[in-house]
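Figure 2 data, in text form.
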Amino acid sequence: MSATKVTFPRLMAQLDYSMLVVTASAPGGNGHRELAGCLVGFASQVSIRPARFMVCISVKNHTFPVALRSPVLIVHFVPAEAEQLAELFGGETGDEVDKFERCDWRPGPEGVPAICELENWFAGRVIDRIPFGDHQGFVLEPLECHGGSGSASFTFRRAKAIEPGHDP
């Protein structure tokens, strides 16, 4: 078998990984908390002991400045049947739409929204931020975990059909 040269994006297009919804909460104007959330595909567990997870958020995303001010982020696992939530958090921007008016949620640790329909999630304290060009990595120390069914994930290949809420 002979391999041929391809571009990096073409090679990466072969990967199909789970998509996640990340939510954040930080002090906003008029004493209110600013809530934000987005669909992310760049994420991974990065340590076993101590437990660490990194999620990367686009610097162009409305969620990014809120996440910078949020001491805790919640990482929600998106099941395959939650396409509408994936489209809401990936195809709309918080600059124009209040995503949390369109879904059921409850306050989690530090007031960060925990989306009720996404029952598998964890809250993590932000312990480091690492710039990666057009994304920034948020290294999280897990604080609180919730689990329900272990259904199949909504994946990157399905998410490609979602028109981004902001410019890529």
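Caption note: The first strand starts at residue 20 and ends at 27.
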